[in-house]
Amino acid sequence: MSRARPFALGLAVLVCGIALAAPARAENNGTAPPLGTQTVPLRQASAARLDLPYPWPMHHLVRDGTLTVGITAKDPPLSFSRADGTLDGSRIVLFSRIAHDLGLSVNFVRLDWPAILPGLFANRFDMACEGVEWTPERLAAGGFLLSRPVAMTHLVVLVRGNDRITDWHALAGRKLGGVRGETEFARARKAVPEAIPVSMPGRQEGLMALLNGQVDAFVVDLPTARSLKAQASDPSSFRVLDPGVSSAPQGVCVNAREADLLQAVDILLTQYRTDGTLAQINARFSNADDLNDLSAVGY
Length: 299
Prior knowledge:
There is one protein chain. The chain is an alpha/beta fold. It folds into two domains: 187 residues, D-Maltodextrin-Binding Protein, domain 2; 87 residues, Periplasmic binding protein-like II (D-Maltodextrin-Binding Protein, domain 2), CATH 3.40.190. Helix content is 37%, strand content 22%. It has eleven helices and 14 strands. Strands 1, 5, 6, 7, 8 and 14 form a six-stranded mixed β-sheet that branches. Strands 11-10-12-9-13 form a five-stranded mixed β-sheet, sandwiched between helices. A hairpin with a 5-residue loop joins strand 3 and strand 4. The chain is elongated and about 55 Å long. Keywords: Plasmid, Signal. InterPro entries: Solute-binding_3/MltF_N.
């Protein structure tokens, strides 16, 4: 992982740098302006398209010709199952677009979050996760690779609408729910060590536990909190509290055996960020991710 990531990200940045610089040279008849004065209008940068291979050669896929993706389908608006059983969500669309641009079909494998990373370790998937935070532990782990960020994670907690909990300190001695294995849950437990942790298999189960009184608060990210509140039959039945915990970059997971896939995915994600594809997907799902915050961390 330590060798693959710098190369993949470095190449993506280099390619984007070339795409951004080219219009400026053309406007100056091949003579570059003095250092520090070169500018490129946003409309030109957004319209730039990279000359990429198609189909993109992949040598270590779990199944030839197919991008196999592990997904929970329990994380709206990122991934969810419609009434007819079809999958939808901003990450479903993103993974499908990546597969298309690589010249692959896509196969989604549904399972609960605690089984996602073990399945990736066991070589069941090429990619997985609606999103995983960049943490020192995960970036240093050898079991899987992390893509460039696609979003920023904002940690919030849901509490019942009639509860008097107003801040983190009020959670001391109360039952704090979260999805088993998620970094949001780990960060919340670290922030409030006096709370009583209650692990849940998924976010829908956590919301039901909150409304049924099995937990006093439930930890999620902000897009999920907005989506759950919008879908609730009575939105006033719970409130969203912002504890003020710092945000973190979030990428998608790639099989550790597939450094070539990581390189391709990082280049495509860079293109999607610059040509507006990520923004279009985001808008379709009610701004699931705050893309402006990606700029604050250099993406």
